Amino acid sequence: MKITIIGTGYVGLVTGACLAELGNDVFCLDLDEKKIALLNNGGIPIHEPGLEEVVARNRAAGRLRFSTDVGAAVAHGKLQFIAVGTPPDEDGSADLQYVLAAARNIGKHMTEFKVIVDKSTVPVGTAERVRAALQAELDERGVAATFSVASNPEFLKEGAAVEDFMRPDRIVIGCDSTPEGERARELMKTLYAPFNRNHERTYWMDVRSAEFTKYAANAMLATRISFMNELANLADKVGVDIEAVRHGIGSDPRIGHSFLYAGCGYGGSCFPKDVQALERTARGHGQELLILRAVEAVNDRQKLVLGGKVTARYGEDLAGRHFAVWGLAFKPNTDDMREASARVLLAELLQRGASVAVYDPVAMAEARRVLALDLAPALLARIRFAASPMDALNGADALAIVTEWKAFRSPDFEQIKARLKEPVIFDGRNLFEPADMAEAGIEYHGIGRSVLTRA
Q1: What is the mean pLDDT of each run of 10 residues along the chain (455 residues)?
Q2: Would you indicate the residue range of the signal peptide (predicted)?
Q3: Which CATH number is 2-205's, of 3.90.1010.10, 3.40.50.10490, 3.10.120.10, 3.40.50.720?
Q4: Helix crossing, 364-374 with 341-351: angle to 10°?
Q5: How do the domains of the chain map onto residue ranges?
Q6: Residues linked to residue 400 through DSSP beta bridges, in sequence order
Q7: Is 270 a residue of the active site?
Q8: Catalytic pick from 18, 28, 264, 270?
């Protein structure tokens, strides 16, 4: 099939590359000339495991192309996927300016039937707005072409997006019941047929329900994380090991183990903005989502917990102290620093007078960029970007772990002890066992791990 993808961010680039991998002829459009030039020269603007190989293979095969030519993009695909950003607006609602601009551009150029597929995460009712924007352009041109607007939200995890796309646990598609909607349903059914050979993974529904499903899924996952983080904070107070609790409740099949890990807060481009957008949608309809308001508040507070453990150990004034920080991205296998917990920790340590040495396997360049925006030059000057995890430790008073990269899970603890001034670890992701740390002679501060172990 001929498919157009509008937007080459995480969702658009992964979607386009993976659909090309299935044999489709994919045209990826982006108005960012630098990004398109990078992609046409073999580069990748994001870090996502496996994506570079998929893009290269399909570019070479002629099934994947990148361009800034709007007219050519609209002419190419009967299916037009809108996969542009929907950043949070000032009031927390999703900013739809890029989605609606994409719809208008389609309307300015289309001459025959098209299916416009909202792949971006958008609030309930967006399909109607897309339809109105597109129809207005057609009316202005006097073109009688028909179209349908469908919803096909993505459920991709950063760091595992290619695998998630190629082996989906579910495919959600919303179509309307008009004749055009039935045509859209058949085209989408054909497109996703390769994923349904063993068993049906597609869930068909109306467009509004599909739009809502995406927000509901992310809100539920965020709720589980904040719930466990709140319990972990209580566990520290009452002498309980939250890991034992996690195993105990996760064994209940009604609960399960996923997204029950205590830590120093969630971040990224999805959970924070989707929770806020769903809250904003509810307020627009005269309803307060009290649970989600609490989820957001708990997460904001959780990002301060690791810094609080540092000041509880060393005092409020950290002038003259030096700390090593492992992990900067909001999660492993990505360089995404949006809403990353490390940004909150670094700001607090620096504002209290400390200096830091930081290391992340992938996100160092992105960290330099975002921290330059976060911090005053005087604070930024007290950050050293280390060449390796062990290099970051040299002369530090303690180590703080913020991102659970696999490379941090089995370090040489004797080297850690030798390089630190004191053998102290603040583990924001509970990578290690307190008993093992005590045996190794390391003072260990986890999240909800009950007893403080000292050398």
Answers
A1: 96 97 98 96 94 97 97 98 88 88 97 97 94 97 96 94 95 97 97 92 97 96 98 94 96 94 94 93 94 97 97 97 98 96 98 98 97 97 98 98 97 97 97 94 93 50
A2: none
A3: 3.40.50.720
A4: 50
A5: 2-205, 216-301, 303-445
A6: 325, 426
A7: yes
A8: 270
Q: Report the amino acid identity of residue 76.
A: H
Beta carbons of 229 and 263 less than 8 angstroms apart: yes
Q: Which of 86, 85, 72, 5 is nearest to 39 (CA)?
A: 5
pLDDT for residue 50 = 96
pLDDT at 455 (0 to 100):
44
Residue 121: Cβ within 10 Å count: 23
What is the architecture of the domain spanning 303-445? 3-Layer(aba) Sandwich (3.40)
Please give the distance of CA 220 from its chain centroid, rounded to a whole number.
Answer: 15
> What does the alpha-carbon distance between residue 30 and residue 73 come to, in Å, rounded to a whole number?
10
Candidates 1.10.1040.10, 3.65.10.10, 3.40.50.300, 3.40.50.2300; CATH matching 216-301: 1.10.1040.10
What radius of gyration, in Å, describes the C-alpha atoms of the chain? 24
Residue type, 395: G
Residue 356 and residue 318: Cα distance in Å, rounded?
Answer: 11
pLDDT of residue 93: 81
Question: In the prediction, which pLDDT does 451 show?
Answer: 59
